Amino acid sequence: MVRNLARRTVTRVVGTDRVESREDVLAVEEPLEIRVGGRSLAITMRTPGADFDLAAGFLVSEGVITRGEEFRTARYCAGATVDNLNTYNVLDVTLAADVPPPDPSLERAFFTTSSCGLCGKASIDAVRTKSAFAVEEDPLRISETLLASFPGRLRAEQAIFDKTGGLHAAALFDGETGGLLVLREDVGRHNAVDKVIGWALKEDRLPLRGTVLMVSGRASFELTQKALMAGIPVLAAVSAPSSLAAELAADMGLTLVGFLREASMVIYSGSERIVRSRAKEGSAA
Known about the structure:
Helix content is about 25%, strand content about 30%. By secondary structure, the chain is an alpha/beta fold. It has 2 domains: about 30-125, Ubiquitin-like (UB roll), CATH 3.10.20; about 140-285, Cytidine Deaminase, domain 2 (3-Layer(aba) Sandwich). Strands 9-8-10-11-12-13 form a 6-stranded mixed sheet, sandwiched between helices. Strands 4-3-6-5 form a 4-stranded mixed sheet, with helices on one face. Strands 1-2 form a two-stranded antiparallel sheet. Helix 5 (about 190-200) runs parallel beside helix 6 (about 220-230).
């Protein structure tokens, strides 16, 4: 059963003299309630798929867990409706016995939308979470040519976007070889990143030293923080970062690149990690 796509009859208007009715494909958006040990922690709007990765990545982003062994199991809960059906929209995570339960301050006071992973925080003090991994000393150096190839490769792998035109994507690349490690899509940019980080946690890859996180939209504060929480030294986006994202990246030693398109980019922090060609260095002198 395909749960990430929905079909709907629409009316298409072309110019001033052509109107047609046809079936269109939409990206699904549904709520996911994440529970830990039976206790509700958050509800986020997401595209179904890779939900276990999403939950695992969310817990990493919130500083609850840092190692794959700490994420024991996850299961969908039945009984989420009056008919006692399993909607596959309620997920209960079991952590290792020695992992403290999430602090109550992490609980969302209300729904998080698909556009915001920080809305509903019970305390603004919890927004700037301290990471268990430092990226400042990460030795990664990546050529600008290799980095510039990532947006096109990310776009080429966006299978659901090709059908709907309505999803964000996040991809993790090996900064040395350029190999694509994982790609995830979602209606929420923060969900797509959490799905990538959750995959890495379950594969025991944290911290993600020597990697590049490529995102299809803008680089917000929340995405910058998620990269830091996973130990990712480079965050690249096809659009602009926010001022707070650039400030956080500079403070923490993360390389932040925006407007990465073909051969052009804007480096907002950590430019020492980007190896430029001799020709371009000479022309800039």
